[in-house]
């Protein structure tokens, strides 16, 4: 027999669900946005949903919650380590990402993310998606203003698609511990694809990182008399 702690009734609640406070999303640098388990999962756990006894949420309350979340006005946000184990968690997470229209610095570390290609972050200058499951540059969000991008410890196989960042102000890129790091002439290929890049994997562009001029062979025809 286990006694429930007073905090048990809050374990699945987001900060917006707790009454009598006016904290907004843009005031939190590292909020927990993962939702509680689904009704079906709670049923199999034989647990009662803490919000089950509440009255049905009205459209007005939904709008008030949206205003309180205030994701549209976040300029700097850390949404790392969210434990997105279920599909409904991932979908809710992407719903939040779509609202980050003004975010400039964003951390999404260790969230088991695989594809954010449908997400656009128009003002994002710094993005950290280390320790996820991206396999290609094509699976990253649209980040036209990106300056610093960290992709360490993903599963990016090749440098295919990296040229999509050619027309961005990207200055610093981290690809440590990705399979593409072992590609022959790795640094030269990255810098040739991204002429504006200044630093790769924490190391500034070096003279040997410049692609050597293409070697051409000229053949002369000899006539033997």
UniProtKB/TrEMBL annotation:
The keyword Methyltransferase does not apply. Transmembrane segments: none annotated. The keyword Repeat applies. Keywords: Leucine-rich repeat, Repeat. InterPro entries: LRR_dom_sf. This is TILB protein. The lineage of its organism: Eukaryota, Metazoa, Chordata, Craniata, Vertebrata. The gene is Lrcc6.
């Amino acid at each position: 027999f286990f006694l429930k702690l007073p905090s048990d009734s809050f374990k699945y609640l987001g900060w917006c669900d707790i009454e009598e406070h006016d904290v907004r999303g843009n005031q939190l640098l590292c909020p927990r946005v993962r939702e509680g388990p689904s009704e079906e999962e709670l049923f199999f756990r034989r647990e009662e949903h803490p919000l089950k006894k509440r009255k049905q949420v009205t459209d007005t309350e939904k709008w008030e919650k949206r205003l309180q979340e205030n994701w549209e006005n976040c300029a700097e946000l850390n949404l790392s380590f969210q434990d997105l184990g279920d599909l409904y968690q991932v979908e809710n997470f992407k719903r939040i990402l779509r609202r980050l229209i003004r975010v400039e610095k964003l951390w999404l570390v260790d969230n088991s993310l695989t594809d954010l290609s449908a997400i656009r972050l128009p003002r994002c200058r710094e993005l950290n998606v280390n320790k996820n499951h991206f396999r290609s540059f094509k699976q990253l969000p649209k980040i036209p203003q990106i300056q610093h991008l960290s992709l360490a410890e993903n599963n990016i196989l090749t440098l295919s698609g990296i040229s999509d960042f050619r027309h961005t102000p990207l200055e610093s890129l981290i690809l440590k511990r990705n399979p593409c790091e072992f590609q022959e002439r790795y640094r030269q290929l990255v810098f040739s694809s991204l002429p504006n890049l200044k630093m790769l994997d924490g190391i500034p562009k070096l003279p040997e990182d410049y692609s050597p001029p293409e070697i051409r062979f000229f053949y002369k025809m000899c006539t033997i008399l």
